[in-house]
Amino acid sequence: MWETFATALLTFLQEWGEIAIFVIFLLEESGVPLPLPGDIALIWAGYHVASGQSLFVVVLLVVEIATLIGASTLYWLGLRGGRPLIVRYGRFLHIDESRLLRVESWVGRRALLAIFLGRIVPGFRVVTPLVSGVLQVPYRLFLPALAVGTLVNSSIWMGIGFYFGPGVIAALHGLELTTQVLISMAVLTVLALLTWQLRRTVLPSRRAAAFRAGRGRKLEAAVLAGLVATVEMAMVQIIVLAVFTELPASLPERVLRALVALSPAGFGVLPSPLTAPGAGLLFIPAGILWAIVYALWIEPRLHSHDWLKGITFSLVPTIFTWLVVFPVLGAGPLGLWLDIGQVLAASELVRHAVYGVALGLAYPVLLLARGASRLPDGRAGQICPSIAPAHPTVMIPTITGSS
Question: What is the model's pLDDT at position 184?
Fold first, then answer.
């Protein structure tokens, strides 16, 4: 199955070149795990530079722009989502103020070096922006360190493709994929345990107050929850694909080949070359948009457990995909135009159910975290998005939610 993924990726890169590289890195740097790492795209790009089909400077510029957008999204998620969670719920996670301040002080003195190394050490590239946001590394320091680290990392992988050609992909992709799957499993486990711990210890006594929040706070919590749920859904997909790869079953391979064939087949409403990049660019915005719909209009009308609310709501994007997205892509209603029966429709049902459960469980926790919390002296604070605590004695600021 991974050979099919590799073939699909290389075909996508061959047809779209720098645009394909932009889409791949925008998704990966936004925290969405991909079946094949973006480093493979850079190896291919290096080979094309060696053969005169691409310009080295143009590829680097494309990767830098995609990284800037995607990594800034994760930085914002850490700052606006992760930071309030730690400030409000730190005592339940065994993270006290003094420990957090010590870490912030240490990172603050070494921010440039830490971010640079995080961008070039395998396994830490995507995590670095998120941690930088949580620890309130000033954006004016984060951005240049991100750019330089990305430049060095991209140059290394493109150099491998330049000197060794695309044949090196076969030797490297196994290690890259194993790392990708392990990271996905680790992050998914941490997110699940964190959500469970906070819901068990904090949410029951404060649930009513959380849902009395104003529309602005609900909108921001919905955006954060939608991004988290989309990333969790993508991680589950990567893990499931890895499991199927080890099973002696031909059906997953048939489904994948049918999906890969959609773009060149050109049966959809969109021109076939737009299928892959269009679907990739809309992946994250679609998850956030559905979360906003859920939070503002659907969730208040449902009365049940949060996970059941989410799974009920998941039928809405599922039906939309069945009846609108599939025909647009050329697969027909419920994907029945493909020679794989109802497997595609069933997989979308399961995929959106995972998204719905993650959304339903995360939204109340993030909604409560948006509210004002109290510092030890009884004052409410405000997160400063650009300046980290400058002295160990400064109290941790928190966000004051709008209502």
Answer: 79
> Which residues, at least 6 apart from 36, have a Cβ–Cβ distance to it below 8 Å?
2, 5, 6, 9, 173, 176, 177
Span 227-276, pLDDT tens digits? 899 989 988 988 887 777 666 666 666 776 676 666 554 455 555 566 66
- Residue 374 DSSP SS3: strand
**pLDDT range class, residue 226, cuts 50, 70, 90:** very high
User: Which among 392, 384, 394 is positioned nearest to 106, based on CA atoms?
Assistant: 392
HEC sequence for 123-152:
CCCCHHHHHHHHCCCCHHHHHHHHHHHHHH
The length of the chain in residues reads 403
Chain segment 88-104, per-residue pLDDT in tens: 777 666 676 677 777 78
Q: What is the DSSP letter of 396?
A: P
What letter represents residue 84's amino acid? P
The rounded distance, in Å, linking the Cα atoms of 293 and 123 is 34
